[in-house]
Specification:
Elements lengths: L1 H9 L3 H51 L7 E6 L2 E4 L16 H4 L21 E2 L2 E5 L4 E4 L4 E4 L29 E5 L9 E2 L8 E2 L10 E6 L4 E5 L14 E2 L3 H11 L7
Parallel strand pairs: 1-6, 5-8
Antiparallel strand pairs: 1-2, 3-4, 5-7, 7-10, 9-12, 10-11
Length: about 270
């Protein structure tokens, strides 16, 4: 009889068990957001490191090639925009199933690792292959040694005086304010060109990424990298091949933030 009373005293009652479960659930609810934020911060740090390595390679290429910036050569091939031979990176990341087009780009010998071309927060997949992650998350500004034919408004950039072909031509704004590489949104990324107009057009062509706490990471022509936190919490849901208008003052400010980092004068 004594043993039976001891076992009854040592066992959990149903109420006590439910209380323990409730406490565990509360602790999990408190900890999971902190863990998710920590993971996101880690992804952003790796992304910034990737961009720093890419930017160092970008500058090394220029120093090794008589001041010439890595070319960004893009052509329309059937329905896709594709970087072609001689460009900093080849192919189209929405359909590339391996790293061959990364390794064939003129920038790769100065980088040596295909892994740094993809942001760890980028979970986008290859077209029609949902189990295969894309190999690249970054694109380069339209106005840095671009040679593009897309049968659209971007074509005029090729011969525009604002199109900088040499590192020494990056003067206004100075290299510390001229951005080079950017996290591009998975909906618009394809070739290696980030399409963006100068101030006369207030709309998006390529979309800025937002995977880092509603922000994106960028590299600059002097070699440093930065995180931009967007003022507008805009969520792009589909890609338009036309200019996509800004939706409010915050969205316009975000666009102008990037336009401030484009070449301003011939």
């Amino acid at each position: 009889m004594t043993n039976d009373r001891f076992r009854a005293a040592a066992a959990f009652t149903l109420i006590e068990l439910l209380v323990v479960i409730a406490i565990i659930a509360i602790l999990a609810a408190l900890l999971l957001p902190a863990l998710a934020k920590s993971k996101a911060t880690g992804h952003s740090a790796v992304c910034l490191s990737n961009l720093r390595q890419l930017q160092v390679g970008y500058l090394t290429y220029a120093h090794d090639n008589s001041d010439k910036l890595p070319p960004n050569i893009s052509r329309r091939v059937q329905f896709d925009q594709v970087n072609v031979t001689g460009a900093w990176v080849l192919g189209n990341t929405t359909v590339d199933t391996n790293i061959a087009n990364i390794k064939a780009g003129v920038l790769f010998p100065h980088i040596g690792s295909a892994a740094v071309y993809r942001c760890p927060a980028d979970k986008s997949t290859v077209r029609d292959q949902p189990s295969l992650l894309r190999t690249r998350s970054y694109s380069i500004s339209l106005w840095l040694n671009v040679d593009i034919v897309n049968f659209g408004s971007a074509d005029w950039a090729t011969t525009n005086p604002l199109n900088r072909k040499k590192l020494s031509q990056i003067v206004d704004p100075p290299p510390s304010q001229t951005w080079v590489l950017i996290d591009e949104h998975p909906l618009s990324i394809d070739d290696g060109v980030f399409l963006i107009a100068t101030y006369e057009i207030s709309g998006w062509s390529s979309y800025r990424g937002d995977q880092h706490n509603n922000g994106a990471n960028l590299s600059f022509a002097d070699g440093h990298v930065e995180h931009y936190r967007w003022r507008c919490r805009r969520k792009f849901t589909q890609y338009s091949y036309n200019w996509t208008p800004t939706i409010n003052a915050g969205d316009r400010a975000d666009l102008h933030k990037l336009q401030d980092g484009l070449p301003h004068s011939p």
